[in-house]
Amino acid sequence: MIKKQYFLIMLFLTVILCLIAGCNQDVIEPKEPSAADYQTINIDRERQITDMAGRTVTIPSEVKKGLGTEARASYMLYTMDPDTMTGINYEFNDKEKAYILPQYHNLPVFGQGGSFNLEAVVAAAPDVLIIYGPLKDAAISDTEDIQQQTGIPCIMMGDTLAQIPAAYRLLGEVFGREESCEILARYAEKALGFAAAINIPEEKRKTVYFGNGRENLETAPRGSSNAELLELVQAVNVAALEGEITGRIDISAEQVLGWNPEVILLNGEPTKNVSPADAVKTFLSDSRYRNVEAVKNGKVYAIPKYPYSWFDRPPGPNRLIGIYWLTDLLYPDEHTIDIKSEAQDFYSLFYHLELSDGQLADLLGY
Asked: Within a 10 A sphere around the Cβ of 178, how many other Cβ atoms?
C-alpha cells in the first residue's frame, strides 16, 4: 500500500515539473514565408519550355487551357483534345459544324489577325496562347508584343508541312499530352514520308491551277506556303509569278486561259457560303473557260473541304490528308491509295469523328 502511494506521489510531482518547464519555454510564433520560400513555391508552379522559334517561355506547371491566335493554331488544339480550347477564331458555318463535335459549336469567338480581341483574351485567361506561323524575326517580335500586352505565355510553332511533327510534339510537352500528340506526329511523319517517296518523271507531272474565292480567281503562286501541297506531290503549279509571295493573290481570267492547266482544283469561299461544289459549277458555266484543257477533259475538281480544306484555308495540318487525296487524283496509275479508308482514319484520329458514308460521299464528291 505504501509503495502504491509513493508511486502516485512521484507521478504527480513529475507532471507538475513538466508543466512548469513548459511554461518557462519561449512561445514559438508562426514564421512568415520569406522571399526564398515564395520563390520555391513559384518554381513548383512554373516550368520553362523552348518553343520552335528558340524562345524560352515560362509556363504553368500544369497547362489545361489554350487559345490559338488564328485558325491553324486552334486546329492544333482541337486535334489534340477539344477540351483544351478556350475558344475559336470565327463562327463555324453549317457545313463545317457537320464535321465538328456538337459540344464545340458555340465556343467563344476571339477573332484572328487584325480582329483578334486582346481584351477578351485577357478576360478569358487561357494558360497559354498558341502562335502558329512563320518563325521569322517579324513574327517573333509580334509574338513578344502579344505576350507583353496580355501577360499570357505565347508558344510559337512553325507552319510548314515539314514542321508539323515537331509542332505536335511541342504541344504534347506544353499540355502534358505527349502520348496522344506523338500519335499525331507519327501520322504526319508517315504522310510526309509517303510524299517524299513520290517519283514522277518531269514530263508526266500534271500542270495544276488552284482557285479560291467567290470567282475562283484567287490563287497561291509557286513558292507560297498556301500552295505547298502541289510541290510536295510533284505537280506543276501554273501560277508562276515573279517576286516572293507568301500567301494568296488575285489574278485574272486571262491568266488562267494563258496557263491552260491540265487540272483545276477549286476551294470555294466559306465567308460567302460558296462551297467547293458551287465553285466548280460556276467555273464550268463560264464560257470563257470552255477551251481550257482541264475543262475539255473533265478535270475540274472540288477540293474536299470540311471542317477544313484538304489543300488550303487554312494551310495547316489539315493538309496531311490532302497529300493522299491529291496524289490519288493526279497520279492514280503510279500509286494505289484507298482514299476512303485513309479519310476515315484521318478523321477518326484528328477530328475525333467516325465518318458516315454520306459524309464521305459529300467530301469526295462521289
From this structure: 14
Question: Strands 46-50 and 56-60, how do they pair?
Answer: antiparallel
Amino acid at 340: K
Q: What angle do CA 30, 31, 33 make, to 5 degrees?
A: 135
Residues paired with residue 49 on neighbouring β-strands, in sequence order? 57
330 is written with which cell numbers? Answer: 493526279
Q: How many of the other CB atoms lie within 10 Å of CB of 32?
A: 6
Residue-level length of the chain: 366
Q: Strands (DSSP E) along the chain, which ranges? A: 46-50, 56-60, 66-68, 128-132, 154-157, 207-211, 218-219, 236-237, 249-250, 263-266, 300-302
- 251 φ, ψ to 5°? -130, -175
Which among 137, 178, 133, 194 has a CA at the least distance from the CA of 339? 194
Confidence at residue 70, expressed as pLDDT on a 0 to 100 scale: 96
Cα torsion angle, 194, 199, 202, 204, sign: negative
SS3 49: strand
Split at pLDDT 50, 70, 90, the class of 34 is: low
Buried b / exposed e along 155-168 (16+ C-beta atoms within 10 A): bbbbbebebbbebb
Torsional class of 113: left (φ above 0), alpha (ψ -120 to 50), beta (otherwise): left
pLDDT score recorded for residue 44 = 73
pLDDT at 50 over 90: yes
Residue-wise pLDDT tens digits, 70-118 = 999 999 999 999 999 999 999 999 999 999 999 999 999 999 999 999 9
For residue 96, give the C-alpha cell: 463545317
**Do 155 and 51 contact (CB within 8 A), yes or no?**
yes
For 291-309, give the secondary structure using H, E and C. Answer: CCHHHHCCCEEECCCCCCC
Up-side HSE of residue 349: CA atoms within 13 Å toward CB?
A: 19
DSSP assignments along 238-269, one per residue: S---SS---S-EE--HHHHHHH--SEEEE--B
Percent of the chain with pLDDT over 90: 81
Q: What is the pLDDT of residue 36?
A: 46
- Judge contact between 209 and 248, C-beta under 8 A: no
Beta bridge partners of 109: 88
